[in-house]
């Protein structure tokens, strides 16, 4: 190869590089500057201290973490631990509820076509696209001592005093989160179920498998990828939700996002808030790793 | 075989003798399963629509509870359209959403092309990173950006929110664009080249028209996500108005919710009609 050709190739490569930098550069810098850098900085701040004029003092300390875990009556008795465990429980209950409700509907959607498919899809998607805060707010009137459910039961004489279950607290939070996140689960399950070759199901039926066996041994394993992705996309946002308990728990308990917000906004304890944030960052990273392992990105479009 | 035994037992239960009975039994089971699925689906649709319909009904009610019934009124709508701060906040949220979705589109489309069409080091890491804004809880994004902004002396407000929302909206652009490009028949581009079109001509007349539905769907998603976000704008929005902040204040500090039901009703109506059009126009599930 002549020197001139080599030079030409080098220029072309450089041109390609420049083009690539121009295409991917802005997006990459957005992700670096607005996602990765702030998160890394947050982790750093969680090991720093705050002085009386609210400046960050860079001295390595784990006091923010001990403050999270060790309460006045011993370790693991802090309100933070309670909120974290409660949030995990609420997120888990929401995930299970969406799976149980979404599987049959997703399966039904794969069997439908034409008008019926469009109608069911429309019915499911409208609540999904109605903004989140409205979806949570829409449950407000149902609950509470004088909420719709309790006053209905009272007026029918079924109960003689308001039922605690229908007052603000755990049940409304889980029900409204299930309502809000159901479509995520449905859509991811639907797209993985739709990809299943129906011939496989027919073949297992011909070989004598019962419906239950087909569901257990064929449909669920083949849609496992969608199931896992769906669970991640319900569990993580449910874990970090702020508006839902604010609207529907009404101070009966606090979820982790409320603890963090209160610390940062009212007390400006950003070091404490940063340490607490780690308990949402770690689940996010685990979820990220799971999604990376199970999902091809083309399938996510 | 356990399976055929199972069938046999079922057959005996419904009084069909032997093998000949397996077909009707399976049909019965099929019918039950199918009715069950329909019943459940309809039940879930009712569950999904019940609270939203209640809001619509309440928006026309004299009192903010159904019982006792005090009559129908348009007063709530009057209080919505005379609530300047709520309307102003809605307008501001729409401006933020439009700007953020536009920024996300401008940087997301080329990024999608780079990921789908180029080979370079770190490409698989990058395609993974793209979904991170989607997965990361809003409160983490809000807190981390707030702290970083404070430290570098960048004050929260409109630009901070647009930055946060544009990276939040990035996956909604990049994922559909890469998905669309992955199934794109490149022979179309080659054909256009062979027929004498230059690079920009191919891009403008062949490639972009084919992927533009994906971009449009992504823009809508990014717009909606920005418009409905509360927690990010709560942290990085500073004193800027936002519809969700206004609604949050109404509910939590009980600043009177008369305007809330009609506002929510308008949102439901707009979403429902836009979606009805979109579903009839094309298969939008592709882009979800």
TrEMBL record, chain A:
GO terms for cellular component: plasma membrane. It is a multi-pass membrane protein. PROSITE patterns: ABC_TM1 (PS50928). Pfam families: BPD_transp_1. Keywords: Cell membrane, Membrane, Transmembrane, Transmembrane helix, Transport. InterPro entries: MetI-like (IPR000515), MetI-like_sf (IPR035906). Residues 84-291 form the ABC transmembrane type-1 domain. The chain crosses the membrane at residues 20-48, 84-112, 119-142, 227-248, 269-292. Its main location: membrane. It is found in: Cell membrane. Belongs to the binding-protein-dependent transport system permease family. CysTW subfamily. This is ABC transporter permease. It comes from Halorubrum glutamatedens. The lineage of its organism: Archaea, Methanobacteriati, Methanobacteriota, Stenosarchaea group, Halobacteria.
From TrEMBL, chain B:
InterPro entries: Bact_Polyamine_Transport (IPR051789), MetI-like (IPR000515), MetI-like_sf (IPR035906). Pfam families: BPD_transp_1 (PF00528). It comes from Halorubrum glutamatedens. SUPFAM superfamilies: MetI-like (SSF161098). CDD domains: TM_PBP2. Belongs to the binding-protein-dependent transport system permease family. CysTW subfamily. The keyword RNA-binding does not apply. Gene3D superfamilies: MetI-like. This is ABC transporter permease. Residues 90-281 form the ABC transmembrane type-1 domain. It is a multi-pass membrane protein.
């Amino acid at each position: 190869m002549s020197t001139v050709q080599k030079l030409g190739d080098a220029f072309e490569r450089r041109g390609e590089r420049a083009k690539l930098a121009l295409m991917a550069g802005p997006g990459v810098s957005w992700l670096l500057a607005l996602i990765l850098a702030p998160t890394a900085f947050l982790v750093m701040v969680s090991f720093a201290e705050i002085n009386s004029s609210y400046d960050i003092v860079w001295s390595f300390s784990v006091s923010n973490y001990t403050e999270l875990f060790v309460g006045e009556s011993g370790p693991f008795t802090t309100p933070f631990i309670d909120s974290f465990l409660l949030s995990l429980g609420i997120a888990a209950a929401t995930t299970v509820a969406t799976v149980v409700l979404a599987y049959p509907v997703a399966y039904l959607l794969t069997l439908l076509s034409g008008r019926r498919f469009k109608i069911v899809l429309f019915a499911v998607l409208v609540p999904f696209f109605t903004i989140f805060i409205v979806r949570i707010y829409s449950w407000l009137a149902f609950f509470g001592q004088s909420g719709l459910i309790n006053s209905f039961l009272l007026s029918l004489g079924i109960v003689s005093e308001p039922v605690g279950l229908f007052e603000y607290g755990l049940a409304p939070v889980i029900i409204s989160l299930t309502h809000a996140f159901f479509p995520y689960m449905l859509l991811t399950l639907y797209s993985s179920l739709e990809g299943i070759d129906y011939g496989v199901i027919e073949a297992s039926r011909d070989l004598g498998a019962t419906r239950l066996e087909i569901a257990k041994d064929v449909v669920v394993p083949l849609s496992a990828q969608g199931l896992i992705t769906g669970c991640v996309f319900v569990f993580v946002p449910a874990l970090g939700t702020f508006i839902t308990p604010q609207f529907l728990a009404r101070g009966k308990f606090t979820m982790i996002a409320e603890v963090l917000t209160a610390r940062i906004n009212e007390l400006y304890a950003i070091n404490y808030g940063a340490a607490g944030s780690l308990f949402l960052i770690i689940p996010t990273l685990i979820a990220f790793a799971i999604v990376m392992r199970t999902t091809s990105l083309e399938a996510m479009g | 075989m356990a399976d055929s035994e199972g069938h046999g037992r079922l057959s005996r239960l419904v009084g069909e003798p032997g093998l000949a009975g397996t077909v009707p039994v399976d049909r019965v089971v099929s019918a039950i399963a199918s009715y069950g699925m329909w019943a459940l689906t309809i039940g879930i649709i009712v569950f999904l629509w019940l609270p939203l319909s209640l809001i619509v009904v309440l928006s026309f009610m004299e009192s903010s509870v159904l019982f006792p019934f005090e009559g129908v009124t348009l007063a709530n709508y009057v209080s919505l359209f005379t609530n300047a701060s709520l309307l102003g906040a809605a307008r501001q949220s729409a401006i933020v959403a439009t700007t953020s979705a536009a920024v996300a589109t401008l940087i997301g489309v080329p990024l999608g092309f780079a990921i789908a069409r180029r080979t370079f080091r770190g490409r698989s890491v990058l395609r993974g990173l793209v979904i991170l804004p989607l997965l990361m809880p809003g409160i983490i994004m809000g807190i981390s950006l707030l702290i970083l902004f404070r430290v570098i002396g960048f004050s929260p407000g409109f630009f901070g929110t647009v930055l946060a929302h544009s990276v939040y909206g990035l996956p909604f652009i990049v994922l559909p664009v890469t998905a669309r490009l992955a199934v794109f028949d490149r022979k179309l581009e080659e054909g256009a080249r062979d027929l004498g079109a230059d690079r920009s001509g191919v891009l403008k007349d062949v490639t972009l028209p084919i992927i533009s539905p994906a971009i449009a769907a992504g823009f809508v998603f990014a717009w909606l996500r920005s418009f409905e976000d509360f927690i990010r704008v709560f942290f990085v929005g500073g004193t800027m108005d936002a519809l969700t902040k206004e609604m949050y204040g109404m509910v939590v500090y009980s600043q009177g919710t008369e305007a809330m039901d009609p506002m929510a009703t308008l949102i439901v109506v707009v979403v429902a009609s836009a979606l009805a059009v979109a579903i009839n126009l094309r298969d939008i599930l592709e882009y979800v």
